[in-house]
């Protein structure tokens, strides 16, 4: 019997299998070639998309917030370029051995940085440090650590610091969004809109190529304020010195250009530095000049006198009998410091007689007084647009009783802001014309609304000059070579149990030069301690110093040289 040829069978089987494998490989090659042609020729967008997904980024194009300037072009707020360092945790962890180097460059603890990164592995974007100096950030970029990137941002800087802090306010710490003051009031004007562009980056996060612009950045618009930084510095310095000298709780000063209604200076104490707010209480952020109200005391008397003169029943020489030094209104006795006897209305203002003012006010109707006070802006906003501005407190005349009418005449039972009071004095200085208050620079003069007869306003200014004379309560507000019209005010502060007899608001308000007024100002000192607490002692000297400097800076010619003794003029003219 013959045995089968196993070798021939195995050879045939081998050849069959070889043919199968060859066919299979050929088929796979055809499929691969077809797919390659499809991807690279017919449908090349897929590979481009995959490449873009790995190396293409949408980069933010930062835009400058608008700068803020004083009326003469001095910068008050500017945005400075800074860099923020951010990372992609998953990408950074691939180079975990570089974290200690990164921590050293960022001035951070290495253990803290490692924990921070590992606890955010599910995120693709985290900030490591915000607002680094560009030179320091460049050192971080030089490390070329994968997953670490820089982003250009801007940080708000206030060159004048606390001198203009309450006025300007500030933005959010890491965002250009106004939070207080003019930064908030004009946020829609100053705010910028960042742009965006598509770029290609290498694995170190460096830009290789700009592909396209998605959205162009829109910088913010600059704001030119009404503030004169020279006068602002002067007001800040003198107010701070007075608050410290008298151990006061706080203080405020406002200076207004009478012809335009522009606020040339506005300062408060205590102040704060908007460049460094870490250790400052939020209570210090508020601008007391527009948000805080107080009872003005005798500084309201010129406006009650305006109502009396406008009624036709009184004039500067009208005699009011203040004997025996007090007046009884219901159960309340209203006293004077001294019994002045029968004196003119001018003397009532010069000596600040509460008795004389109360008797005169009770001869008017409540409506006459109320309408005059409203005409001067009391009980309503000045329209400055400053955030949080108070309208003060002035009840409708229908709610007044005789005692209210009497106490309002010398500055109680109504409340005002320093800005309101400054505007009222500016109206007197403008000859009875009320102009809107503004914190933007305007080209004057500005037309306004007449709220008081010019004759009455002129008569009042002449009467108020007596206040600043040697025998008046405001003689420390006098200026060399200039005529000053003003009024002192000293008011007890109200508390939970009634009025305190040892805590005061001390005020002086006035206009200069009295013959042709250019500036109006209010100085208010809150709770001066010590022996001096009257407005004529505490606030009037601040007014005098600030106004003397402001008139010199603005080049306003003297109007009172003819009232100086000849010897004084000769001495002043000598070198």
SSE layout and pairings?
Blueprint: H1 6-42, H2 45-55, E1 56-61, E2 68-69, E3 75-87, H3 89-93, H4 99-106, H5 110-118, E4 126-132, H6 134-142, E5 148-157, H7 165-168, H8 181-185, H9 187-190, E6 195-201, E7 207-215, E8 223-224, H10 229-245, E9 250-257, E10 263-269, H11 288-291, H12 301-310, E11 319-321, E12 326-329, E13 332-335, E14 342-344, H13 345-350, H14 354-362, H15 366-375, H16 402-408, H17 418-429, E15 433-434, E16 449-450, H18 454-467, E17 485-495, E18 498-512, E19 519-526, H19 535-538, H20 540-554, H21 566-573
Parallel strand pairs: 2-8
Antiparallel strand pairs: 1-6, 2-3, 3-4, 3-5, 6-7, 9-10, 9-19, 11-14, 12-13, 15-16, 17-18, 18-19
Helix pairs in contact: 4-5, 10-20, 12-15, 12-18, 14-16
